[in-house]
Design a protein that fits this description.
Shape: globular
Number of strands: 28
CATH architecture of the largest domain: 3-Layer(bba) Sandwich
Structural class: alpha+beta
Number of helices: 11
Oligomer: single chain
Radius of gyration: 23 Å
Low-confidence stretches: 1-7
Strand content: 25-35%
Largest sheet: 8 strands, mixed
Number of domains: 3
CATH topology of the largest domain: FAD/NAD(P)-binding domain
Mean pLDDT: 92
Length: 494
């Protein structure tokens, strides 16, 4: 049973008000809770979202989940993507892989496979983790007004019974989706386009007589394709069906049964319970900016994706992961407020690039093939080489070397820490300093430091001193220990 605390239980003030308890809001709430930041998470619905919508957890997001302490549960709840099996006239035609996994023996990439977990289950696991960290969701509570001041945001929250309360928050984060209230109330425009004139129907459905070892595909014409994907850890399939541009599919159980019976070899009687159903026209949109004063946009409130490529949920979770540590440093460690400016400067270009990838995948004739997936969609290559917190100060760098702004790769520690990994060092809310082939300098309290000599780690990083941010990216790369104090001060560490 999900805790449901309504408006009468709301505090009068909080450090961070998070609006929307989807994957973005739950991730941010978990991150802030472990940092000791007082956060209030509200959700207008009476319960968590019930559908499978964003079911692909990319390798980089799995690393985020490891840091947040939720990955083992995600691994138990999900599974590898099955091979796609095509059907024609009731006869199977052949199989292929939708995703191209990275090498399984690369110690710098501990999770090379995209992992399939229904979105509702991912949210449940994040919700459970939030509870372990002492947090909760206030369900049945909608944001209906906000008023910005130089030092706070005054938010009006309305309960399911119509009761209103005001809450003072030092910062407010919109995680309430593309149609949410916060972006509109904050006055931030969003520009977008319909990327496909053909509507689609998505549903969670039970189907008898269909093998759960494959993702099943019907329809030579991509414009009328129907797919049924077995959802691991459940008895359900996720249905995806496209329709003609002049059709308007109904979001109903009857429509689901009708389209399955019409386009597959399965009889309507094979279709059992129908759960969540959604009809939509794919679009892509990007907010003009990700911040207005003390209000931040994250997830679908900031960028809306086609489902192609499994990018939307993952980009949204990583928005929260980027913003969480910065709010923590400002609110708990005295970092300068300018640190929060880097959220938009880093994440808006990333969202723009990822939107381009997902839109191209959607429009590609080979969208069901793996050619455009793999390295481009696993998000391990995403970084901030031109970001405001990135300082590359080494004098000589090989052309293919790791650089400041890149994801900090994993590697075995070796030496006095057999069985340990760099990710073990990084896990938590702290900043890490790695000395690779150099003496380990003195670091301030609260900074974790480790010297690396040889092995996979030295090969992955190269010689230098590396400051690894709390979100697992290299902030500073230098040869000179004198560069450390000034950089760490920018993060509120002295």
């Amino acid at each position: 049973m999900q805790p449901s605390q309504h408006s009468e239980h709301l505090p009068a003030q909080t450090d961070v008000l998070i609006v929307g308890a989807g994957p973005t809001g739950l991730t941010l709430a978990c991150d802030l809770a472990r940092r000791g930041v007082d956060a209030l998470l509200v959700e207008r619905a009476g319960a968590l979202f019930p559908g499978s919508r964003g079911k692909g957890v990319q390798p980089r997001t799995q690393e985020v989940f490891e840091d947040l302490g939720v990955l083992p549960a995600v691994q138990r709840a999900g599974g590898r993507y099955p091979r796609i099996l095509s059907w024609e006239d009731g006869v199977p035609q052949g199989e292929w892989d939708l995703v191209a996994d990275g090498p399984a023996d690369d110690p710098t990439v501990p999770y090379p496979h995209i992992w399939m977990v229904p979105q509702w289950r991912t949210q449940e696991l994040l919700h459970d983790r939030l509870g372990e960290l002492g947090g909760a969701v206030r369900f049945g509570t909608a944001l209906t007004g906000l008023d910005q001041h130089p030092d706070r945001v005054v938010a009006t929250l309305t309960g399911a019974d119509g009761t209103t309360r005001t809450v003072d928050a030092r910062y407010l984060v919109a995680a309430d989706g593309g149609r949410g209230a916060v972006r509109r109330l904050a006055g931030i425009p969003m520009a977008g386009e319909q990327i496909d004139p053909q509507p689609a129907l998505v549903a969670d459905v039970r189907v008898a007589g269909l093998d759960r070892g494959n993702w099943h595909h019907w329809g030579k014409d991509p414009g009328s394709a129907l797919l049924l994907c077995p959802l691991p850890g459940t008895d359900d399939f996720q249905l995806f069906a496209r329709f003609g541009a002049d059709e308007e599919p109904e979001a109903s159980a009857a429509a689901v049964r009708e389209v399955i019976a019409a386009r597959t070899h399965l009889a309507a009687t094979a279709v059992g319970a129908v759960g969540w159903v959604s009809a939509f026209r794919p679009r892509a949109a990007l907010a003009e900016r990700f911040r207005a004063g003390r209000v931040f946009l994250a997830g679908d409130a900031a960028h809306i994706h086609s489902p192609a490529g499994g990018q939307g949920l993952n980009t949204s979770i990583q928005d929260a992961y980027n913003l969480g540590w910065k709010l923590g440093q400002v609110l708990r460690h005295g970092a300068p407020g300018e640190l929060l400016d880097s959220y938009e400067e880093e994440r808006l270009p990333i969202a723009s690039d990822v939107l381009e990838i997902s839109t191209r995948l959607h429009r590609s004739d080979s969208a069901l093939r793996s050619g455009l997936r793999g390295a481009r969609t696993e998000q391990l290559g995403i970084g901030y080489p031109d970001g405001p917190l990135t300082v590359e100060a080494r004098r000589e760098i090989p052309e293919e070397a790791l650089r400041a702004g890149d994801r900090a790769p994993d590697a075995p520690l070796g030496g006095s820490s057999p069985g340990g990994r760099l990710f073990d060092l990084f896990r938590g809310t702290h900043v890490t300093v790695l000395a690779v082939g150099l003496d380990l300098p003195a670091v301030p309290a609260g900074v974790r430091a480790h010297r690396v000599d040889g092995g996979v780690a030295a090969g992955a990083y190269g010689r230098g001193l590396f400051v690894v941010r709390p979100d697992g990216y290299v902030g500073l790369a230098t040869d000179d220990p004198a560069d450390l104090p000034g950089y760490l001060a920018r993060l509120g560490i002295s």
